[in-house]
């Protein structure tokens, strides 16, 4: 079997095909340029500096590029890194693609598609149903491919759809406990709430924030998409149905400080925000617990206001659960 | 049919049996004492001042007392009040009891008991199961009778059990979506989390905070009960099972500023807090929307950080839902 | 000369044509409906309750309606109010219009138009120039008619344009001090930043927040308008020019808690926010000082974090300045 | 005289008996395990990594273990560390014990006991007196041995008792200035307030937070002890005396964000909180000033909200005071 | 014995000499002027409106004026007020002075002077000693006459000196427990810390904030006084002694949000702040408890972050303590 | 041409005259002393440690000293540093002075003086005019020499005057847009607001906070100077003019948390604060953008609440602007 990044020890030389997870052109203090790179291949990741770089190198070795890495593994300041001997871009005809290097969500794309489509059927309001279908059609390829974020939660290939589906399952149970909830609106909100991330993020692997992502954000990006879809579909631009749906996506971060321009002002918007937060939290805490030994606490989780979580000495439910990342 | 409080108009005189929902002995600026009273009979409530009161009157006409009220309805500063002619304590042998004046939760006590007991069966861990049974036994009478609070949510007779049951239903669905969750611990936490309110509050009707409630609080009060139960049941006082259960109740307010001495440090504790908050929010928002006309916003809801919620012009789910209060 | 609202004393009866500045259908505690009205005629305003109202009355006597008011002026709880004898909607053919009742900004609309158009000429970038012209064309009538808000600042007819113009003047001087500023972008941002208020607010007089205003907000409303304009004008929807302009309007509140989905991320966006805030502050503080006696402090100004401002005993600049409201 | 940790220079080899102050099993990025150790012997401390460790090593070389350390002192990243040649657990029969390695509070245990017992005599209320005596009896051995914390203040052997005693002295003076204060309650509160730390911390040397400490906290831990003591002593579990004492310990952190489930609601509880804070602050600031040169500022003190303190050029009082750590 | 304000009942007419505790010229909504007055005579206070006032009336009937009040006591909106028939300024030769109407601190001025002077003797540093003596000389008359504030604590005649003295007593005990404290600096800080209030407040009775108080504040006002004193006394303006003393007064509010331009950066400054806060808190809580019945809670105390305090059913220390206000 | 600090590469030895920008005596963990130095010569700066230092070395090689540095450039932890061979203080007679090593503001001192003096002419109020002239006279040498801070903005020689002048230009335009503003007061406030920095900072190069700076702060330091100037000039110490000017400087940080003992309470004080903040922000953002490549974001700017700013791909205004640092 092929040796992977994780299999090398200090001092060993390596020559293998990996992808560049992160690439930044930096200055040393004395104004020489170098590329600070992170390599990954699905088994783990490791850093390395490419010295005396120029802008052309930065363009060649950008995030997401597949490269042949020749170098030596070293320990530096207690952390492993690669001393780079040479770096070569792997051509499209050499038979590699990013998929083989990137972790994927724990459910199959086709299964997720089918289950999500079943939820679309339950959106009974024609305005919401048509917009959801239109945007799933327009952005579906990315939607089932992208992660839900850079690092906090669901940062895996297909993570965006997986997060959406898990929320729909929660929404299903909750809306049955509370019959006063408009289930169609809640389902439509779940499906669209993070779809703007197909514009906010750069792609399924080695994802970065785009300029649109940084300057507009996925809440407003999907709102703009809804309005343009409505125009294309010749829907009434001033209908209350359209207004409610826009409010769902614009308020789903729940607090101003998380970038919602409006706070939830519908019972369904409040629920959408809470289900989103709950699903992200369960993912992040579970992931951290799976990397913690029984009887110990996780590191402080930044996504959870710095809280630390305890993994009980005996916890069969967690022991038997599927590994996330 | 008998006329009730709500049926009287300005200027009408009334003579009917009601109960005192709230009673406070106050000074006027020139140091005369009077009782500021709120009367209620299940149809609504109305205020009235009992002038030239003394401590003995305050003791006779305390919160929760059933009285015969003779007076006249007036409008004062835009709000109705009763000009009191006379007030008489109704004796225990006159055939009245508080039950007939107080609103109750929308499900029957016997039904709730049966469903909650079914959840107790699903608590598989013997330590948690025995403590839950012991405390349900010890405090059950009050548990199925008390409200969940003074005013924010579930402030109705049986509201404590109703809130608990609704949370168990949410917990059921959520723990099925996330198999890594220890369902037994989550169910035990749901049942016990607010049980300390049987000590924090004064009773099912016209409820007030007790001194224990104000100085200790229901989180620590139930924690003390758990420890004393464990001692009585000769359980291992240093077992991790006992530790986890205590942490569930002590952390369930989720934030220091809401009186949790510890933040949730278990996945199940985090979920308990969120389910508690979600159920309380759905209740409060629904209740407010039911008192709002379609196409309008509720008043700012203090329990929801001052947010206002919109009742859509068309909203069948809400229209068809059961009226809460 | 005709007597106006401000000219009546306690106990005097009046019969005059005014407009309804604010109208709210409310319940008394015993569930009777009434309309809480505020009447105004440009000389001042006064409240009055219309008892035993129904929904039809609420529709007839909505905010912005011109009415013939017959009643008596009374003092109630230290504040004057009208005891209403009768109320009649004035028909469109009776020769009244709202203009004569509402205060206007201190500069003439035609002068403001000319000066603003001069600034449009200075927007050299074709994308920004075309969008600004298109939206001024589409919404210009409202833009020169609406106030900039309900109460905090520039709450006068034409206040929106007046506030915009005053900002452009500040932006002019500031961009000359700092040549690194892109003046075209700053001017375009000034003109568009609050234009979404033509959708957020209900009109020039007796203005209210619309449902769109409450659920979407003027920042996102104008962003949607920019995108739809770009589509109509066949501009490149993915150009950086379009991105920068959208960011200007989306970030201009400067802080998340004021509803900006993004914080200013351009030097020009930072300046736009600060000029907006500065102009609003100068207006609000000046207005308060003009109502304060020399040697005294204003009331705490809610729009200024509760700060109070001192009017010096000698202050010729203020004495000579134009009265705002 | 024996050479101690502090006496070695870079490059020198050493072989001496020390104790492990802190031990953590960590992964390198490539998933190899090592122990990150801190060694100490009362003269100072120094770090060192034990490579290629396994769980058994982690158990052998846990915090608080006395070991024979053979290695070489090196400078790494500007900080000294030990390159470990070998590490051996020192057996109980080799004549060492932790006491000789750990700094102690600046007063003798017997003196502190006598003075604290004198304060117990002044607790006149029988409920408080009996509970204080009972718990001092039950936990006294640890109480006079443990530190008051891991690092912030009084982190020395016997620091818990020393902090308690210093607070009693402050409480004595303050309660004489304010005769309205219930001195018995304040003294009882001082003695019990931090006693839960005998359960929250792992021991006198190389102390760590226990799972109980992290999940329950010393405020609730001592509250539980009070309730169980009351039960054992057959005191009235519902008496106001018991309620007041529980409130004292539960509220003594003074703010929700510091883990108090209730804010001080008694004059004596407010004072307890302030005296606790004052004594801890004086200790931490004095300790920092003693490590600062005259005419300079301390580093920002995290325990004091990041404030820095100035040591005057001339300050005889400080010069003459006893060195703390 | 003479009847005082508190002795009158609703409907009774009165004609007695009182002083104006507070006077504000206000507009009714229809722009008529009136004076909102509060009358007091040491037995209590009561409000009344003087209608149709003009600026001359406002000048005549300003805060602190002694008047003959002729009117009738009425109940208005649940609070008593005076319907004023006539109001006459009492001349200086009619034998009244404010002293007889204003409550005083519970210790005699001469006793306080003597005890404070004894503390001055203990200030051993000549710079601090001379400045303290100079400023006590310059402002002593006001210092022993003024209150320490408008309402929060020590709002009685002589309250400023009483608060200072009580702090000195605390400082005495605390500095004996911690020998590292520079007692001279702490005593000097106690005496000067609030002395700027002789400029910030308008006088011993019916005290108001002066313009200096509102725009500069007592921390900086006393700092300016110290600098000017140093100049007059020909002290070294750049000495560290002078610097330390200025820092003491400038930082004594302890937090930026309370108007300290610098946070405490000396051990003694930290203690000064805490002793100040402690003494003010004990006063405010005691005062509130003395107005609360045993077994009840005080109202929320705004000066204590809204906390409420419980008065135990049995509390001899409080029962026997001197009544404050 | 002479080689400067920036011209050396890793491994090269150097022997050149530079100045010490920052010097700190530190302990290694094993209590050996060393000097952590930063060297600079206007081309850039670089760090180096001087081992085995003592207090005498710390005095010789303090911040601001010109030295002959002999050593070797090395890369350490990704950052360049100097391995020091020897260090020698350059005597005053060797022909060097700090000026040649320190960056200066982008306008000439003489030009700035002339323009600032023109603004002084426009201060029409004699009190303000005389105080401004007096203090410019007294502190002018430093005022035109010092930076405006250590690092955030205008941290260059003459930066204090340059920042002041830039604010005056803004103030000029703004006061023309708002005639209600007292221009004299605003100009006087601009000139004096930061003049206390001549006491708060240690000098034009390698500037540090003085003890006065840390314990009093430049707001109060200039306030004290104003009072002492007024005394020297025999102005009325209680005049309102003097009061207004003191308030301007004391409130100009605008918020308590930035060390203003009072919030702005004059329209002109509010404007002064905003113009100060605006000018500092424009400087800091421009400076950061000038170090950022087109199409990228700056690092998070700590002085701007961590915001990051985008440099558009096309931005002629910025491209053509003068380089700041």
TrEMBL record, chains A, B, C, D, E, F:
InterPro entries: HD/PDEase_dom, HD_domain, NA-bd_OB-fold, NA-bd_OB_tRNA, YhaM_exoribonuc/phosphodiest. The keyword Hydrolase applies. Gene3D superfamilies: Hypothetical protein af1432 (1.10.3210.10), Nucleic acid-binding proteins (2.40.50.140). The keyword Iron does not apply. Residues 29-90 form the OB domain. Keywords: Hydrolase. It comes from the Bacteria. Residues 161-280 form the HD domain. PANTHER family: 3'-5' EXORIBONUCLEASE YHAM. This is CMP-binding-factor 1. The lineage of its organism: Bacteria, Bacillati, Bacillota, Bacilli, Lactobacillales.
């Amino acid at each position: 079997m092929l040796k992977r990044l994780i299999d090398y020890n200090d001092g060993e030389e390596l020559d293998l095909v990996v992808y560049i997870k992160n690439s930044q052109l930096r200055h040393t203090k004395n104004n020489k340029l170098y590329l600070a790179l992170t390599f990954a291949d699905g088994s783990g990741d490791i850093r390395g500096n490419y010295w005396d770089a120029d802008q052309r190198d930065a363009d060649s070795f950008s995030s997401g590029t597949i490269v042949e890495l020749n170098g030596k593994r070293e320990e530096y300041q207690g952390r492993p890194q690669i001393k780079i001997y040479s770096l070569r871009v792997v051509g499209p005809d050499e038979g590699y693609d990013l998929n083989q290097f990137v972790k994927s969500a724990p459910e199959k794309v086709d299964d997720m598609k089918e289950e999500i489509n079943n939820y679309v059927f339950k959106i009974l309001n024609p305005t919401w149903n048509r917009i959801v279908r239109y945007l799933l059609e327009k952005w579906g390829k990315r939607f089932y491919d992208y992660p839900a974020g850079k690092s906090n939660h669901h940062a895996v290939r297909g993570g965006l759809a997986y997060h959406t589906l898990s929320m729909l399952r929660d929404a299903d149970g909750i809306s049955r406990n509370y019959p006063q909830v408009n289930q169609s609106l809640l389902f439509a909100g779940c499906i669209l709430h993070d779809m703007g991330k197909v514009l906010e993020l750069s792609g399924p692997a080695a994802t970065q924030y785009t300029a649109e992502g940084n300057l507009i954000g996925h809440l407003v990006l999907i709102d703009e998409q809804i309005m343009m879809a409505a125009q294309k579909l010749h829907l009434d631009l001033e209908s209350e149905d359209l207004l409610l749906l826009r409010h769902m996506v614009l308020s789903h971060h729940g607090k101003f400080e998380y970038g919602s321009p409006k706070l939830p002002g519908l019972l369904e918007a409040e629920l959408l925000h809470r289900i989103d937060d709950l699903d992200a939290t369960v993912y992040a805490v579970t992931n951290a617990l799976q990397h913690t030994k029984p009887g110990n606490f996780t590191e402080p989780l930044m996504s959870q206001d710095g809280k630390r979580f305890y993994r009980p000495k005996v916890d069969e439910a967690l022991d038997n659960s599927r590994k996330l990342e």
